[in-house]
Amino acid sequence: MDDGPDEAPGNAGSSRPVSLLQPVADTVRALGRRLLREARHGALAVIGPTGHPAASRVLVATDACGNPMILISDLSAHAAALAADLRCSLLVGDVGKGDPLAHPRLSLSATATPINAAAPERPAMRERFLSRHPKAALYADFADFRFVRLEPVDAALNGGFGRAYALEPTDLIDEPVAGLEEAGIRARDHMNADHGDAVDQIARRHGEPHDGWRIVTVDRSGFEIGRGDRLRHVAFALDPAGPGGFRRAFVALLAEASEAKGA
């Protein structure tokens, strides 16, 4: 990520460093969470055997707390690098039209946690990953493939020129809540089966004009809706860990979408 100079323009020769970091507001945290949870792929950087960094494109999903996770083969160079040094970095953020550096991106410094086949959390990770990347079912259960959770230690968010922020893990990742992941799966399946029109209405509220959206994954922060190769994160206004759970959180979003439609 381009962090810019250590001194502000026009201060050449000054010995006093000028921070280019901006204050972190809730809108910045929301952008960071969206970038992380909407990511379908990212650039994974590891420390290679010579000590030089090495980068590779990987498929990305998030666990129920928002930690990014990847699926890699033990035969890959980046798997070998992580076996030797668990420190890594992940860059996410899609590039749209125009200047690539004008679009927001999030860079995480993280510690990798490989998940073995017998780990109790593997089935839930597998379900979330394949919900986002169904074609990965072709190889997800091969003996040489494993899921790896990337646990952030810090993050840098660049929202475009002059919009640089340093984030903490707590700005992006939720604390686990007993039973919430299972409740989220039930809520997702119910919404997709019985309330597809409501999902489309919420999608339109967030700038997506076409129908046919489905909820892909759900967590405490919100949920991801998918249509073809497009993925959008929708944040909850109400905490589903509170009274009323996911039902109350979805009803509030639908009420907001209905009000916007009638305005």
Automatic annotation (TrEMBL):
<dbReference type="GO" id="GO:0005737">
    <property type="term" value="C:cytoplasm"/>
</dbReference>
<feature type="domain" description="CREG-like beta-barrel">
    <location>
        <begin position="31"/>
        <end position="167"/>
    </location>
</feature>
<protein>
    <submittedName>
        <fullName>DUF2470 domain-containing protein</fullName>
    </submittedName>
</protein>
<dbReference type="Pfam" id="PF10615">
    <property type="entry name" value="DUF2470"/>
</dbReference>
<dbReference type="InterPro" id="IPR019595">
    <property type="entry name" value="DUF2470"/>
</dbReference>
<dbReference type="InterPro" id="IPR055343">
    <property type="entry name" value="CREG_beta-barrel"/>
</dbReference>
<dbReference type="Pfam" id="PF13883">
    <property type="entry name" value="CREG_beta-barrel"/>
</dbReference>
<dbReference type="InterPro" id="IPR037119">
    <property type="entry name" value="Haem_oxidase_HugZ-like_sf"/>
</dbReference>
<feature type="domain" description="DUF2470">
    <location>
        <begin position="189"/>
        <end position="228"/>
    </location>
</feature>
<dbReference type="InterPro" id="IPR012349">
    <property type="entry name" value="Split_barrel_FMN-bd"/>
</dbReference>
